[in-house]
Write a structure and sequence with these properties.
Elements: H1 2-26, H2 28-41, E1 50-54, H3 57-63, H4 73-86, E2 90-93, H5 105-115, E3 118-128, E4 133-135, H6 138-143, E5 164-169, H7 173-178, E6 181-185, E7 198-200, E8 202-203, E9 209-210, H8 212-223, H9 234-246, H10 257-267, E10 271-273, E11 285-287, H11 288-292, E12 303-307, E13 320-321, E14 333-334, H12 335-348, H13 358-375, H14 378-403, H15 410-446, E15 455-457, E16 460-461, E17 473-485, H16 488-493, H17 497-517, E18 521-526, E19 529-534, H18 539-563, E20 571-587, E21 590-596, H19 598-613, E22 617-620, E23 630-639, E24 647-655, H20 661-678, H21 682-695, H22 700-714, E25 723-725
Parallel strand pairs: 1-11, 1-12, 2-3, 2-12, 3-6, 20-22, 23-25
Antiparallel strand pairs: 3-4, 3-5, 7-10, 8-9, 13-14, 15-16, 17-19, 17-20, 18-19, 20-21, 22-24, 23-24
Helix pairs in contact: 1-13, 1-15, 2-14, 4-5, 8-12, 13-14, 13-15, 14-15, 17-18, 20-21, 20-22, 21-22
Length: 729
C-alpha cells in the first residue's frame, strides 16, 4: 500500500511540474483552454441596456470626415443633444479630447453641461525604456509621446529595460470640467497580436484609479436607484475606497449583497477575466450617422458607448483587438466594444472566475489519474483514466456555462493526461527490467545451468549451450519462510484434482506476490507447502522484509478466501534464520533446485506450532531482532519434534500503528500469565490467562496456555524447565 501511494504521488507530482512548466512557457490554459470553453459555450444574449454607437465606414462617408478623428468633434455636440432627446441614461465616449479645437469645443462643452450624463475616457500611456517602446491610443499617442522619466546626462543613453512607467492623459480642461466624470481605460498594444482576455478594474500603478467601466457602473447604479448619491465624482470615491480597503487586512464591512459585490471589486485584485458574449458586433451596435440623423429609436434608459467601430473588418485600422472569438471571418473587436463588454459583465455580475486555484485543481486531477493508472495496469488503466478525463471535461464545460467558472482544461487534458500515460508506462518498464535483473542475478548465483536459456533482452531467447562447468550448490546465511495449509488433506478429498489445481494455481499467485515484492525468492512449492528464502542482504533488511511479506501473505490469503467459491485455505507461516545450502539435487535424469538445511526444517516445524497456538505467523526470537516497526509478542519456548534444543517463539501480529490499545492490554496480560507459567506457578498462570480470555475469547495462545496450566495443576511435572515439548508437527 505504501508503494502504491508513493508511486502515485511521484507520478502526479512529476506530471504536475512538467505540465505547469510547459503551461507557464506557452500560456496554454489561457490561449487554448479558456478560448475553447468560450467557443463550446457559444454566444450569449447581452444586456439590453447597452447600445454602441459606431463611428463606422458608413458614417465616415455620410458625414464626410474620413478616418481623421479630429474632424468628428464638430458632430459630437449634435449627437449628445440627440441622445438627450431620446432619453439615454449615460453617454460614454471612448475618445480622447486632448487637443483643443476652438471652433468646435464651445458647442461640445455646452451640450455636455446640459446633458449632465457624459463620461469620458482618459488615455493611459505606458513607457518602457523611453520612446523606443511606447504604448498609447490615438490622439494621446500622437501628441504626448515624450517619456515620463527623463534621462540623466547623455540624451542618447538608453533607459533601463526594467524601467516601466505609466501615466494618464485627460481631455482639455474645459471639456473635462463639463463631463460628469472621467477615468482611464487601457488595452494592450494591438501590435503584439495578443487576445484580450483580462481587463483592469483598477489601475494601482495610477494611484489606484478605477477604470471607466467601473465608474460607469456606479453611475448606472446611482441613476437606477440602487445606490446613494455621493458628494464627489465616483472616480474619486472609488479611489478613496480602494486605498482604504488596501490599508485594512479585513477589507470593508459589507452591508448588502450589492455592497459585497462592490467590496469584492474594491479589495480583491485589480483585474478580471472578460466573459465575452460572442464575436465582434454581438452587442447592439448602431451607426453614428443614423443616430445623429434621428433614425434610431429605443434609446430610453440606455447606456450608450460612443467610439470607433468598423462594421466590416479592416486590418489596417487601429484600436481593434484580438478576442477568443476572433477569426478571419469575424475580424477583431473594437476597443469601445471591449469597454462595453466589461461594463456588461459588471452589470450582470458575470466575470469569468476560478472557483479554486488553478494549480490545486490541476494537481488533484494529476493525482487521481496517477492513482487510476497505478491501480489498473495497461489498457484498463488508460481506458478508466480517459473516462475520468471525459467526465472532468464535461464538468468543466457545464460549470462554465452555468456559473462562468473556469476550471483548467488544457493543462489537465492535453499535458497531464498523456504525460501520466507515458510516465506510468516508463515506470512499469523500469520495474519490469529491475525485476528481471534481480531474477537473472539470482539464477546466475544459484542455478548457473539455466543462464544459457535466459533472455538476452525482453522478447529474445537464446539456446546456447552452457559454457564451462559451474558449481551446483552454494552456502548462504539467510532467512527461511515456510507455509502450510491447515486441513489440506480433508479439503483435497472433497474436490476433484482439476478443482484443486485451479484453486492452488490462484492461491500460490496470491501467496507468492508478497514474497517477490519484498525481494524474496520462492525456493520450492510442493503440494500445499511453499518455501521462500532471503539472502545476500543485511540481516536487518532480510528480517524486516520477511516479516512484512508474512503479514501481507496473511492479509492476501484472507481476502482470497472471501472471494473463493471453494473451501477456505487457512495458511500457517513459520520464520527462522540460519545457514542454508542452495543448489541442485539430481534424481535420475532430472534435477531439482532446493534450499536445504536445518534452517529449512526448523522453519517448517515452527509453522506447525501455529496449529497448537491458534496463530497464523510464528517466528524464532532472532528474526525480530532490531525491528522497531514490527509488533510481536513472545509465546514461550518449545522443544520441536526432532530438535533437542528449545526454540523461543514469537507471534508476528502487525506493524506499529495497526495495533490498538485493547490488543496491547491483552498482550500485557498474556505476558504476565506466561511469566507465571514458565515459573511453574500454575494457579496464578491459570487465573491470569482466564482474565486475558475475558478481554478476547478468541485469542489462541491464551486458550492454549490456560489449558496447559490447568492440566499441570492437576498433574504437576517433577522437573519443569519452562519449555513445552511437542510430540507432533
Amino acid at each position: 500500500m505504501t508503494r502504491f501511494w508513493l508511486r502515485s504521488l511521484a507520478i502526479g507530482f512529476v506530471v504536475f511540474l512538467c505540465g505547469g512548466a510547459i503551461n507557464f512557457i506557452v500560456d496554454l490554459e489561457s490561449t487554448l483552454g479558456l478560448d475553447t470553453l468560450l467557443r463550446i459555450r457559444g454566444p450569449q444574449t447581452p444586456p439590453s441596456a447597452i447600445v454602441l454607437i459606431a463611428m463606422d465606414e458608413a458614417s465616415e462617408h455620410r458625414l464626410g470626415v474620413g478616418q481623421d478623428l479630429t474632424r468628428w468633434r464638430s458632430f459630437h455636440a449634435g449627437l449628445i443633444q440627440r441622445l438627450q432627446q431620446q432619453g439615454a441614461l449615460l453617454v460614454v465616449f471612448d475618445l480622447q479630447f486632448i487637443q483643443p479645437h476652438p471652433a468646435d469645443d464651445p458647442a461640445l462643452v455646452a451640450a455636455m453641461r446640459e446633458a449632465g450624463n457624459v463620461l469620458l475616457v482618459e488615455c493611459v500611456q505606458k513607457f518602457r525604456h523611453g520612446v523606443e517602446d511606447f504604448y498609447g491610443r490615438e490622439e494621446c499617442s500622437d501628441t504626448n509621446s515624450q517619456p515620463v522619466v527623463a534621462r540623466d546626462g547623455d540624451s542618447n543613453t538608453a533607459l533601463s529595460e526594467q524601467l516601466v512607467a505609466m501615466r494618464s492623459v485627460t481631455a482639455t480642461a474645459a471639456i473635462a470640467e463639463a463631463a460628469l466624470d472621467h477615468a482611464p481605460f487601457f488595452l494592450i498594444n494591438d501590435a503584439e497580436n495578443a487576445s484580450i482576455r483580462e481587463v483592469w478594474t483598477f489601475f494601482d500603478a495610477l494611484a489606484e484609479a478605477p477604470s471607466l467601466p467601473m465608474v460607469t457602473w456606479l453611475y448606472y447604479l446611482q441613476r437606477s436607484g440602487a445606490t446613494a448619491q455621493t458628494d464627489r465624482p465616483f472616480s474619486a470615491w472609488l479611489t478613496e475606497q480602494r486605498r482604504a480597503c488596501r490599508s485594512k487586512s479585513d477589507g470593508l464591512p459589507a452591508r448588502s449583497p450589492l455592497q459585497r459585490r462592490i467590496d469584492n471589486l474594491l479589495c480583491n485584485g485589480d483585474s478580471r477575466y472578460l466573459n465575452y458574449y460572442g464575436p465582434p458586433r454581438t452587442l447592439r451596435m448602431e451607426s453614428y450617422s443614423d443616430v445623429y440623423d434621428g433614425k434610431v429609436g429605443d434609446l430610453q434608459g440606455k447606456v450608450v458607448f460612443v467610439g470607433r467601430a468598423n462594421r466590416q473588418f479592416s486590418p489596417g485600422k487601429s484600436d481593434f483587438f484580438q478576442t477568443p472569438y476572433s477569426d478571419s471571418r469575424t475580424g477583431k473587436m473594437a476597443g469601445v466594444e471591449i469597454m462595453a463588454t466589461q461594463f456588461a459583465n459588471l452589470l450582470e455580475d458575470c466575470f469569468i472566475e476560478m472557483p479554486a486555484p488553478s494549480g490545486l485543481v490541476s494537481g488533484a486531477f494529476g493525482l487521481l489519474v496517477a492513482l487510476v493508472l497505478v491501480r489498473f495496469a495497461g489498457w484498463t488503466g488508460i481506458a478508466i483514466s480517459l473516462a475520468f478525463a471525459s467526465m472532468y471535461a464535461g464538468l468543466a464545460v457545464w460549470l462554465f456555462g452555468l456559473r462562468h467558472w473556469w476550471l483548467p482544461v488544457a493543462m489537465p487534458l492535453l499535458l497531464q493526461l498523456p504525460l501520466s500515460w507515458l510516465l506510468t508506462l516508463a515506470w512499469s518498464r523500469y520495474e519490469l527490467m529491475r525485476e528481471r535483473g534481480r531474477m537473472l542475478a539470482f539464477v546466475r548465483r544459484v542455478f548457473p545451468q539455466w543462464v544459457g536459456m535466459l533472455p538476452a533482452a525482453p522478447g529474445q531467447w537464446t539456446e546456447t549451450a552452457n559454457v564451462g562447468a559451474a558449481s551446483t550448490e552454494r552456502d548462504v546465511s539467510g532467512l527461511c519462510l515456510a507455509t502450510d495449509i491447515e486441513g489440506y488433506t480433508t479439503i483435497a478429498a472433497r474436490h476433484s484434482p482439476r478443482e484443486m489445481w485451479t484453486l492452488l494455481n490462484t492461491y500460490y499467485q496470491v501467496l507468492g506476490h508478497p514474497v517477490v515484492s519484498h525481494d524474496g525468492v520462492i525456493a520450492d512449492v510442493t503440494g500445499d507447502a511453499m518455501m521462500a528464502v532471503w539472502f545476500d542482504a543485511p540481516a536487518s533488511s532480510q528480517r524486516r522484509a520477511a516479516c512484512l511479506a508474512a503479514l501481507e501473505m496473511a492479509t492476501a490469503v484472507a481476502s482470497f478466501n472471501l472471494s473463493s467459491s471453494l473451501a477456505p485455505l487457512a495458511t500457517r507461516i513459520g520464520l527462522h534464520e540460519g545457514e542454508l545450502t542452495l543448489g541442485r539435487l539430481d534424481a535420475g535424469d532430472t534435477s531439482h533446485y532446493r534450499a536445504i538445511g536445518d534452517t529449512v526444517n526448523t522453519a517448517s516445524r515452527i509453522q506447525g506450532v501455529n496449529k497448537y497456538l491458534g496463530t497464523k505467523i510464528l517466528a524464532s526470537k532472532s528474526v525480530t531482532a532490531d525491528l522497531t516497526d514490527i509488533v510481536y509478542r513472545p509465546v514461550g519456548a518449545f522443544r520441536l519434534l526432532g530438535r533437542a534444543e528449545p526454540v523461543e517463539l514469537l507471534e508476528i501480529v502487525g506493524t506499529v500503528g495497526q495495533i490498538d490499545a485493547q490488543h496491547n492490554a491483552l498482550y500485557r496480560q498474556f505476558a504476565d500469565g506466561l511469566q507465571a507459567f514458565r515459573q511453574g506457578q500454575w494457579n496464578d498462570a491459570a487465573r491470569l490467562f482466564q482474565d486475558a480470555l475475558e478481554m478476547n475469547t478468541d485469542d489462541g495462545p491464551t486458550r492454549f496456555y490456560r489449558q496447559q496450566a490447568l492440566a499441570r495443576l492437576q498433574n504437576p511435572e517433577q522437573a519443569w524447565d519452562g519449555v513445552i515439548t511437542l510430540d507432533g508437527k
